[in-house]
Amino acid sequence: LDEFHPIGKKALCAITFDDGYKDFVDYAFPILIKYKSPSSMYIVTDCVENNIPPWTYIINHLFINTSHLSLDLYSKALSPKLQKTKWKNQKERLHYAKKLSPFLKQLNNQERKLIYDQILTNFNDVDMPEGMMMDWNDVRYVSQNGCEIGSHTITHPLLAKKINAGEISRELVESGKIIERQIGKFPIVISYPFGNYNESIKKNALHSGYKFGITVNHNVYDSQVNDLFEIPRAELYSEPFFKSKLRINGIINKISNVLRITLLIGLFDV
pTM of the prediction? Predict the structure, then answer.
Protein backbone atom coordinates (compact mmCIF):
# COMPACT_ATOMS: atom_id res chain seq x y z
CA LEU A 1 0.00 0.00 0.00
CA ASP A 2 2.93 2.36 0.53
CA GLU A 3 3.44 2.24 -3.24
CA PHE A 4 -0.24 2.61 -4.07
CA HIS A 5 -0.28 5.80 -6.08
CA PRO A 6 -0.83 6.80 -9.72
CA ILE A 7 2.09 6.23 -12.07
CA GLY A 8 1.57 8.73 -14.85
CA LYS A 9 -2.02 8.19 -16.00
CA LYS A 10 -2.09 4.50 -15.15
CA ALA A 11 -4.29 3.64 -12.15
CA LEU A 12 -3.38 0.81 -9.81
CA CYS A 13 -5.67 -1.71 -8.19
CA ALA A 14 -5.32 -3.44 -4.81
CA ILE A 15 -7.04 -6.83 -4.58
CA THR A 16 -8.06 -7.58 -0.99
CA PHE A 17 -9.88 -10.34 0.87
CA ASP A 18 -11.26 -10.48 4.40
CA ASP A 19 -11.79 -13.10 7.12
CA GLY A 20 -9.54 -15.98 5.97
CA TYR A 21 -11.89 -18.43 4.29
CA LYS A 22 -10.34 -21.62 2.90
CA ASP A 23 -11.88 -21.09 -0.54
CA PHE A 24 -9.39 -18.25 -1.04
CA VAL A 25 -6.60 -20.84 -1.09
CA ASP A 26 -8.60 -23.34 -3.13
CA TYR A 27 -9.97 -21.05 -5.84
CA ALA A 28 -8.84 -17.41 -5.78
CA PHE A 29 -5.15 -17.73 -4.94
CA PRO A 30 -4.26 -20.11 -7.81
CA ILE A 31 -5.68 -17.53 -10.23
CA LEU A 32 -3.72 -14.74 -8.57
CA ILE A 33 -0.52 -16.79 -8.82
CA LYS A 34 -1.22 -17.61 -12.48
CA TYR A 35 -1.46 -13.93 -13.37
CA LYS A 36 1.25 -12.88 -10.91
CA SER A 37 -1.16 -10.57 -9.14
CA PRO A 38 -0.27 -9.51 -5.60
CA SER A 39 -3.11 -9.48 -3.08
CA SER A 40 -3.89 -8.99 0.59
CA MET A 41 -5.76 -11.20 3.05
CA TYR A 42 -7.02 -9.80 6.35
CA ILE A 43 -7.64 -12.64 8.77
CA VAL A 44 -9.75 -13.01 11.89
CA THR A 45 -7.25 -14.81 14.11
CA ASP A 46 -9.79 -16.67 16.27
CA CYS A 47 -11.42 -18.02 13.11
CA VAL A 48 -8.10 -19.37 11.84
CA GLU A 49 -7.06 -20.80 15.22
CA ASN A 50 -10.43 -22.46 15.95
CA ASN A 51 -11.48 -23.29 12.37
CA ILE A 52 -14.84 -21.56 12.87
CA PRO A 53 -16.24 -18.81 10.59
CA PRO A 54 -17.06 -15.31 11.90
CA TRP A 55 -20.11 -14.90 14.12
CA THR A 56 -22.17 -13.41 11.28
CA TYR A 57 -21.75 -16.57 9.21
CA ILE A 58 -22.55 -18.78 12.21
CA ILE A 59 -25.82 -16.96 12.90
CA ASN A 60 -26.95 -17.47 9.30
CA HIS A 61 -25.83 -21.10 9.47
CA LEU A 62 -27.86 -21.71 12.64
CA PHE A 63 -31.05 -20.10 11.32
CA ILE A 64 -30.82 -22.05 8.06
CA ASN A 65 -30.15 -25.46 9.59
CA THR A 66 -32.00 -25.56 12.91
CA SER A 67 -35.28 -27.44 13.18
CA HIS A 68 -36.53 -25.14 15.95
CA LEU A 69 -39.47 -22.84 15.25
CA SER A 70 -39.04 -20.62 18.29
CA LEU A 71 -36.26 -18.69 19.96
CA ASP A 72 -36.07 -17.39 23.53
CA LEU A 73 -34.24 -14.07 23.49
CA TYR A 74 -33.96 -11.78 26.50
CA SER A 75 -32.51 -8.38 25.76
CA LYS A 76 -33.70 -4.81 26.28
CA ALA A 77 -31.81 -3.95 23.11
CA LEU A 78 -34.24 -5.86 20.89
CA SER A 79 -36.63 -3.70 18.94
CA PRO A 80 -40.38 -4.46 19.16
CA LYS A 81 -40.32 -5.88 15.63
CA LEU A 82 -37.82 -8.50 16.76
CA GLN A 83 -39.69 -9.59 19.89
CA LYS A 84 -41.69 -12.17 17.94
CA THR A 85 -39.60 -15.31 18.05
CA LYS A 86 -42.06 -18.02 17.05
CA TRP A 87 -42.54 -19.09 13.45
CA LYS A 88 -44.79 -21.43 11.49
CA ASN A 89 -42.08 -22.70 9.17
CA GLN A 90 -38.50 -22.25 7.97
CA LYS A 91 -39.48 -19.45 5.60
CA GLU A 92 -40.77 -17.33 8.47
CA ARG A 93 -37.68 -18.15 10.54
CA LEU A 94 -35.34 -17.03 7.74
CA HIS A 95 -37.39 -13.87 7.21
CA TYR A 96 -36.86 -13.07 10.89
CA ALA A 97 -33.11 -13.78 10.56
CA LYS A 98 -32.83 -11.30 7.70
CA LYS A 99 -34.16 -8.59 10.01
CA LEU A 100 -32.14 -9.68 13.03
CA SER A 101 -28.68 -9.83 11.40
CA PRO A 102 -28.41 -6.15 10.37
CA PHE A 103 -29.94 -5.14 13.71
CA LEU A 104 -27.17 -6.94 15.61
CA LYS A 105 -24.57 -4.92 13.71
CA GLN A 106 -26.06 -1.74 15.21
CA LEU A 107 -25.64 -2.91 18.82
CA ASN A 108 -22.66 -2.48 21.08
CA ASN A 109 -20.53 -5.57 21.51
CA GLN A 110 -21.83 -6.52 24.95
CA GLU A 111 -25.45 -6.53 23.81
CA ARG A 112 -24.59 -8.32 20.60
CA LYS A 113 -22.65 -11.05 22.43
CA LEU A 114 -25.56 -11.57 24.85
CA ILE A 115 -28.01 -12.20 22.01
CA TYR A 116 -25.50 -14.27 20.05
CA ASP A 117 -24.87 -16.58 23.02
CA GLN A 118 -28.62 -17.08 23.45
CA ILE A 119 -28.96 -18.06 19.80
CA LEU A 120 -26.15 -20.60 20.19
CA THR A 121 -27.83 -22.09 23.27
CA ASN A 122 -31.29 -22.27 21.70
CA PHE A 123 -30.22 -23.71 18.34
CA ASN A 124 -28.15 -26.50 19.89
CA ASP A 125 -29.39 -29.03 17.35
CA VAL A 126 -27.01 -27.64 14.69
CA ASP A 127 -23.35 -28.66 14.35
CA MET A 128 -20.82 -25.89 13.91
CA PRO A 129 -19.45 -25.57 10.36
CA GLU A 130 -15.96 -27.02 9.98
CA GLY A 131 -13.20 -26.89 7.39
CA MET A 132 -14.21 -23.49 6.04
CA MET A 133 -11.28 -21.42 7.29
CA MET A 134 -7.60 -21.28 6.39
CA ASP A 135 -5.21 -22.75 8.93
CA TRP A 136 -1.80 -21.28 9.79
CA ASN A 137 -0.07 -23.44 7.21
CA ASP A 138 -2.36 -21.90 4.59
CA VAL A 139 -1.63 -18.41 5.92
CA ARG A 140 2.12 -19.00 5.76
CA TYR A 141 1.84 -20.46 2.27
CA VAL A 142 -0.01 -17.49 0.78
CA SER A 143 2.21 -15.07 2.71
CA GLN A 144 5.29 -16.61 1.10
CA ASN A 145 3.76 -16.48 -2.38
CA GLY A 146 2.68 -12.91 -2.96
CA CYS A 147 -0.17 -12.31 -0.51
CA GLU A 148 0.22 -9.66 2.18
CA ILE A 149 -1.31 -10.79 5.48
CA GLY A 150 -3.13 -8.20 7.58
CA SER A 151 -5.32 -8.21 10.66
CA HIS A 152 -9.10 -8.30 10.71
CA THR A 153 -9.02 -8.44 14.55
CA ILE A 154 -9.40 -11.46 16.82
CA THR A 155 -13.19 -11.92 17.00
CA HIS A 156 -14.58 -9.62 14.25
CA PRO A 157 -16.29 -7.11 16.60
CA LEU A 158 -17.79 -3.75 15.74
CA LEU A 159 -14.89 -1.65 16.97
CA ALA A 160 -16.74 1.66 17.24
CA LYS A 161 -19.80 0.30 19.10
CA LYS A 162 -19.09 1.08 22.77
CA ILE A 163 -16.27 -1.44 23.06
CA ASN A 164 -14.03 -0.78 26.06
CA ALA A 165 -10.39 0.23 25.77
CA GLY A 166 -9.11 -3.15 26.93
CA GLU A 167 -11.10 -4.98 24.27
CA ILE A 168 -9.95 -2.58 21.56
CA SER A 169 -6.31 -3.08 22.55
CA ARG A 170 -6.73 -6.86 22.52
CA GLU A 171 -8.48 -6.91 19.15
CA LEU A 172 -5.88 -4.67 17.51
CA VAL A 173 -2.61 -5.43 19.27
CA GLU A 174 -3.01 -9.11 20.11
CA SER A 175 -4.33 -10.02 16.66
CA GLY A 176 -1.21 -8.46 15.17
CA LYS A 177 1.06 -10.29 17.62
CA ILE A 178 -0.63 -13.62 16.86
CA ILE A 179 -0.03 -13.07 13.15
CA GLU A 180 3.57 -12.03 13.85
CA ARG A 181 4.22 -15.27 15.73
CA GLN A 182 2.90 -17.28 12.80
CA ILE A 183 4.45 -15.51 9.80
CA GLY A 184 7.39 -13.69 11.37
CA LYS A 185 6.28 -10.07 11.06
CA PHE A 186 3.68 -7.74 12.51
CA PRO A 187 1.04 -6.82 9.89
CA ILE A 188 1.12 -3.29 8.55
CA VAL A 189 -2.61 -3.11 7.75
CA ILE A 190 -5.75 -3.44 9.86
CA SER A 191 -9.08 -4.06 8.13
CA TYR A 192 -11.91 -2.76 10.32
CA PRO A 193 -14.69 -5.38 10.62
CA PHE A 194 -17.80 -4.18 8.76
CA GLY A 195 -15.82 -1.02 7.99
CA ASN A 196 -16.83 0.11 11.51
CA TYR A 197 -14.44 2.72 12.93
CA ASN A 198 -14.14 6.24 14.30
CA GLU A 199 -11.33 8.68 15.08
CA SER A 200 -10.51 6.89 18.33
CA ILE A 201 -10.18 3.53 16.55
CA LYS A 202 -7.90 5.08 13.93
CA LYS A 203 -5.63 6.48 16.64
CA ASN A 204 -5.59 3.12 18.41
CA ALA A 205 -4.64 1.40 15.16
CA LEU A 206 -1.71 3.79 14.71
CA HIS A 207 -0.52 3.32 18.30
CA SER A 208 -0.90 -0.46 17.94
CA GLY A 209 1.76 -0.50 15.24
CA TYR A 210 -0.25 -0.49 12.01
CA LYS A 211 0.62 1.82 9.14
CA PHE A 212 -2.72 1.68 7.30
CA GLY A 213 -6.38 1.10 8.06
CA ILE A 214 -8.91 0.05 5.42
CA THR A 215 -12.67 0.44 5.26
CA VAL A 216 -15.53 -0.39 2.89
CA ASN A 217 -16.54 3.16 1.96
CA HIS A 218 -17.04 2.28 -1.74
CA ASN A 219 -15.02 5.25 -2.92
CA VAL A 220 -11.96 5.44 -5.18
CA TYR A 221 -8.72 5.88 -3.23
CA ASP A 222 -7.02 9.23 -3.68
CA SER A 223 -3.60 9.50 -2.03
CA GLN A 224 -3.94 13.31 -2.01
CA VAL A 225 -7.20 13.20 -0.07
CA ASN A 226 -7.65 9.98 1.86
CA ASP A 227 -6.42 9.41 5.39
CA LEU A 228 -4.06 6.42 5.56
CA PHE A 229 -6.19 4.97 8.36
CA GLU A 230 -9.39 5.46 6.42
CA ILE A 231 -8.52 3.97 3.02
CA PRO A 232 -11.74 3.15 1.13
CA ARG A 233 -12.48 -0.10 -0.68
CA ALA A 234 -15.25 -1.22 -3.01
CA GLU A 235 -16.88 -4.56 -2.20
CA LEU A 236 -17.62 -6.81 -5.15
CA TYR A 237 -20.66 -9.06 -5.37
CA SER A 238 -22.12 -11.72 -7.64
CA GLU A 239 -23.39 -9.30 -10.26
CA PRO A 240 -22.91 -8.43 -13.95
CA PHE A 241 -19.40 -7.27 -14.85
CA PHE A 242 -20.53 -3.81 -15.99
CA LYS A 243 -22.03 -3.20 -12.54
CA SER A 244 -18.83 -4.34 -10.83
CA LYS A 245 -16.88 -1.94 -13.04
CA LEU A 246 -19.18 0.91 -12.04
CA ARG A 247 -18.71 -0.08 -8.41
CA ILE A 248 -14.90 -0.15 -8.71
CA ASN A 249 -14.90 3.28 -10.38
CA GLY A 250 -17.01 4.70 -7.56
CA ILE A 251 -19.90 5.55 -9.88
CA ILE A 252 -22.50 3.45 -8.05
CA ASN A 253 -21.56 5.13 -4.79
CA LYS A 254 -21.95 8.57 -6.38
CA ILE A 255 -25.36 7.62 -7.79
CA SER A 256 -26.45 6.33 -4.38
CA ASN A 257 -25.37 9.58 -2.74
CA VAL A 258 -27.31 11.64 -5.29
CA LEU A 259 -30.42 9.52 -4.78
CA ARG A 260 -30.06 9.82 -1.00
CA ILE A 261 -29.73 13.60 -1.20
CA THR A 262 -32.69 13.80 -3.60
CA LEU A 263 -34.81 11.75 -1.18
CA LEU A 264 -33.88 13.99 1.75
CA ILE A 265 -34.72 17.10 -0.25
CA GLY A 266 -38.07 15.56 -1.10
CA LEU A 267 -38.80 14.78 2.55
CA PHE A 268 -38.09 18.33 3.69
CA ASP A 269 -39.48 20.17 0.67
CA VAL A 270 -42.62 21.93 1.85
Answer: 0.85
